[in-house]
Amino acid sequence: MLKNNNIKCGDILFQYLREENTFNGAVSYSGSAPNDNELMNKINHVGLYIGQNIVIEAIPKKGVIKNTLNRFLTAGRYNIIGTINNQLVIKNALMRIKACIGFPYNDSFDANAKGFYCSELITYAFRHQTGKDYFQLYPMNFKDLTTDQFIPYWIDYYRNLKQTIPQGELGSHPQQLLRQKELFKTILTLEC
What is the pTM (predicted TM-score) of this model? Predict the structure, then answer.
């Protein structure tokens, strides 16, 4: 088992959250891919370790916040530490993400909405200085992959928002970021 001292400033922390609720379950299910490993298909949150025992994350109802590393880690059943290759991109990401503290949570997952959802915050922070994305965006999925029908949770969720489900629009998901393994120097699992 890895210890917290394996986590370095600029590491991306992926989680399978301990709290079981319909939102977290729907997020996990929306990112899952056929034939992927079980742990990968459960990942439903992501944050960035900025050093000095602080993680910055975007969470529903609170938006972009600072959290202590220990509190962040204990919220996860599993945590995966992703260290990326590019030090210049890490330096830029640390600056960008700190400027986002206090932004609202992007409940709609719409790229044009104010605020950030968790993986959107990471993709925003990890853009190159030129504005080019470090992590590739992908067509978002809100459907059951076996039936090709919308997951019932998302139907109700977007009905309450009075918005159309953004199926297929470009966005991100914690699982999708982690699947871009070629962008990481190391990927380590930390069990809690």
Answer: 0.94
